[in-house]
Amino acid sequence: MAGTLRDVTDSGKPSVKTRAERDEFDAVCFDVLARACPSRGTLEHVTGRWGILALAALKEGTFRFNALRRRVDGVSEKMLAQTLQALERDGFVRRDAQPTIPPRVEYTLTPLGEETAEKLIDLIEFVEHRMPEVLRAQVRYDEARAGDAGR
Q1: Which CATH class, in words, describes the domain spanning 48-149?
Q2: In 3-state terms, the chain is what percent helix, strand and coil (to 5)?
Q3: In sequence order, what DSSP letters do the residues of 29-92 get, joined into one string?
């Protein structure tokens, strides 16, 4: 987390590079806490509301779009499409479009996506297992707030 990527566009995204120039990325130290660091946007894609759920679902296997949408209960078609596009651009998801009528499109994790999903599932399982503690804390907080409001 020592430095940030030197060559970024105005939008904060890395500019397009040749193969030799891309190898330079391996030597860059990224700092997600730095405003201009492109790792911040990637972290946002992975840990955002729908990104983390899409990656966790795709860890179960390959999905067609509508099957994935049913698996990630509550996501709109638009948000899932945007999420998958961002994750595909970042190299976490592979989109395989078959030239059939109608087109058959499947989504699967790349090796980078597999590794990332494993870490996210650990976090998801941690949160799920600690939910009784979280719910008790929420009740205590809400009761304290209600008591403060009555004064």
Answers
A1: mainly alpha
A2: 60, 10, 30
A3: PP-TTSTT-HHHHHHHHHHSHHHHHHHHHHTT--EEHHHHHHHSTT--HHHHHHHHHHHHHTTS
CB-hemisphere CA count at 13 Å for 11?
A: 5
Question: Where along the chain do the CATH 1.10.10.10 domains lie?
Answer: 48-149
Q: Which of 73, 71, 66, 108 is nearest to 91 (CA)?
A: 108
Buried b (16+ CB within 10 A) or exposed e, 17-26: eeeeeeeeee
The amino acid sitting at 49 is: R
- In total, the chain counts a number of residues equal to 151
pTM of the predicted model over 0.70: yes
Q: Which residue in the block uniquely carries the two structure tokens 């078609």?
A: 77
User: pLDDT (tens digit, 9 = 90+) per residue, 85-114?
Assistant: 999 999 999 999 998 988 899 999 999 999
Rg, the chain, Cα only: 20
**Which structure tokens are listed for 106?**
């499947």
pLDDT, tens only, 111-147: 999 999 999 999 999 999 999 999 999 999 999 999 8
